[in-house]
Give the backbone structure.
Amino acid sequence: MRIEHLRERSDLGVISAGALRSLGVANPWLKCRPGGPWQRMHPGVVLLHNGPPTRDQHLTAALMRAGPGAVVTGAEACRRHGLPARGTEIHVLVPGSVRGSGSLILERAVPMPASSDVDGFPVVSASRAVVDACRLLRSSDEATALVAAAIQRGRCTPASLAEEARCNRYGTKLVRDVLRELGRAESVAERDARRLSRRIRLTTPYWNVTIADAAGVVVGRPDAWFDDVGLAWEIDSRAFHYGARDYERTLARNSRYAAAGILVVQTLPTRLRDCPEAVGRELKAAHRAAGARTRPPVRIVEVG
């Protein structure tokens, strides 16, 4: 049978050995020997060329090996959701029992999680993908980076991740610890900021309000806002600024502040905790500088 016809019956060049036999290829594995025109991807799964498989071909072969009803999770699912997950393994959840091979992880799931079509593949929710990816990590820094990116980019919420980890507790201690630490860091940083603001006796700031310019265009939502002088205070945790995109967003935010004439003080939670006196002096100096120039035409707005 002509190779063009076989490719037409394949999925991205990936085809099962059973399908090949039904099409008249008596022993597909002969063509998968070293130097042959094809290659074996997994038991019973053949790629109809001998070059490097694409990521989509890897995933197609994994799902073909896994069988009907399988869904993609873990690092590969995270990447399909636009998250910077590490790891080259492909993690697939299956309704029955089947063994993986090499970098393919096949895990039985009861019940099977819901999935949606992403790039033509059945992929679990971002929350489930992040939790399953963290189950295979050993570094809290890597887990923190992934969880922070998922929350920062709006793919998940802390609540959805916590619920997924609660329902799927096997191997989820790392992600639960990360969520607990991030939550503690946020609450402690806000508490420390409020205490410092009271201690240095500046004008009471507004907390987490939305600021717009004279045209009504939203400029930002600072952690603290000193409305009398138009001063923003941002407590920027490193955990939520991993990666080039996060850095770009921070630069864009600061550029909007600058364009609107808003002075901004940026403080790390660790510095707020360890050097509150120095942070207080910087904040008071910035408040004086903001008060010495004409207040910019910005205002607090309600966001529905």
